Amino acid sequence: MSANSGLVVILTALDLEYEAVRDQLLDLRVRRHPAGTRFEVGRIDQSGCRIALGLVGKGNHPAAVLAERAMAEFSPAAVLFVGVAGGLWPNIRLGDVVVASKIYAYHGGTSEDDGLKARPKAWEIPHEADQIAHHVARSSVWRRRLPPGSDPFVHFGPIAAGEVVQDSGISEQARWIRQHYNDAVAIEMEAAGVAQAGHLNRALPVVVVRGVSDHADGSKAATDGQDWQRKAARHAAVYATALARELIIDGSASQGGSERDGSPTMSINNRNVATGNAHVGIQAGQINGNVTIGGGADGSIDLAASIAELRTRLKQAHLDGQLNEETYAAAESELETATACVSAGTTEKRSGLMVALLRLRGLVADVSELAVRLAAIIAVVRGM
Predict the structure, then answer these.
(1) Which residues have C-beta within 8 Å of that of residue 382, sequence separation ≥ 6?
(2) What pLDDT is attached to residue 357?
(3) Angle CA 332–336–339, to nearest 5
(4) 97 Cβ partners below 8 Å, 6+ apart?
(5) Cα 245 from Cα 255, distance rounded (Å)
(6) CA 173 – CA 35 distance, rounded (Å)
(7) Domains of the chain
(8) Residue range 33-37: average pLDDT?
(9) Distance (Å, rounded) from C-alpha 66 to C-alpha 38?
(10) CB under 8 Å to 271, separation ≥6 — which residues?
(11) Does the structure show a pLDDT above 70 at 295?
């Protein structure tokens, strides 16, 4: 199965979780599986990052089956399971986000004369996905899409996945979790199924993102009445779509034309010849990857595609330490503006596009590859 590096599958169990993710997407189109499963495919903001969204219902078993179905249908770069969970530690506040560093299928065990013995089964988050998830958590960019007054903290830790709703701090099951899985920070009902499906699909990256809507201690009715399910689902959805976008950008960068991938590097020797009325527009020393100017037969280029590629390169420059967090966030903001202007496609938006590109040029001037690519785009916009 060849991965589609431009698409991430996001699955949810509950309708309110589904709606929370759906609210973060644009240009949604229905895609029906032959067996009847309905997915919606859309984009994150104005970017080319695509999401296939599906509803699986409650429980690990349906989650596993429909996760497998989504993986076969879309061949995604990764699968995220997004929704709400019960927090198990007192320092985890309602509305906080939990990213599973490990997933426990906690109902596995063996019954013997002296009691029930745990037979743990667990799946860890892939290292690269874990690194990206931490990066997103540190960034302030994703928080801009949160409702005013929201300030959730992102926790990383094991999540316990079983087949029952835990709503007691003193029940037999609660004691079982504390005894055998006492490092678990949250508890829910679907993650183990999705993780198993990912493991069987050539270790496809699976990341579980949960908003804490209760404390699994008997207070669920009260917190649900205070609308914490909806709030927690929204926080998880905002973080998860930001993570999905970074996973897509990172996957595209890893397949792009950087020197570390084994792609050829342009020679540092440049020779530009201009005759007649022609002139040299851009001259560069060393560029990693491909720069295409005048991509079409008529000399035109796809601005949206060029800006999307620039976003991928921007992300890679940040990961390589060439841009600090503040500069990267400001550059991302200008790219958002530029993308919106291109999508609008009106003459009035052209001046806004140029302003955004010029501001971006000032931010990335010290990164030669970005500066050269941006200069090519600006030259085309000026000639429109």
Answers:
(1) 354
(2) 87
(3) 130
(4) 152, 153, 154, 155, 209, 210, 211, 212, 235, 236, 239
(5) 15
(6) 36
(7) 4-254 (3.40.50.1580), 259-268+280-382 (no CATH)
(8) 95
(9) 10
(10) none
(11) no
C-alpha dist (Å) from residue 73 to 4, 34, 64, 167, 359: 11, 10, 14, 36, 41
Report the C-alpha gap between 331 and 72 in whole angstroms: 36
Size of the chain in residues: 384
What average pLDDT does the segment 243-264 reach?
Answer: 62
Judged by DSSP in three states, 213 sits in: strand
Nearest C-alpha neighbor of 192 from the set 166, 146, 158, 221: 158
Interhelix angle 228-255/15-22, rounded to 10 degrees, is 50
Question: Model's pTM, two decimal places?
Answer: 0.69
CB atoms within 10 A of CB 234: 24
The residue type of 346 is T
The pLDDT assigned to 176 comes to 86
Q: What is the pLDDT of residues 218-238, one digit of tens each?
A: 999 999 999 999 999 999 999
Q: Which of 361, 339, 359, 362 is nearest to 349 (CA)?
A: 339
Round to whole Å and give the CA distance between 264 and 241. 33
Q: Which residues contact 231 (CB under 8 A, 6 or more apart)?
A: 94, 95, 147, 150, 211, 213
| Highest mean pLDDT pick, 5-9, 209-213, 276-280, 336-340 | 209-213
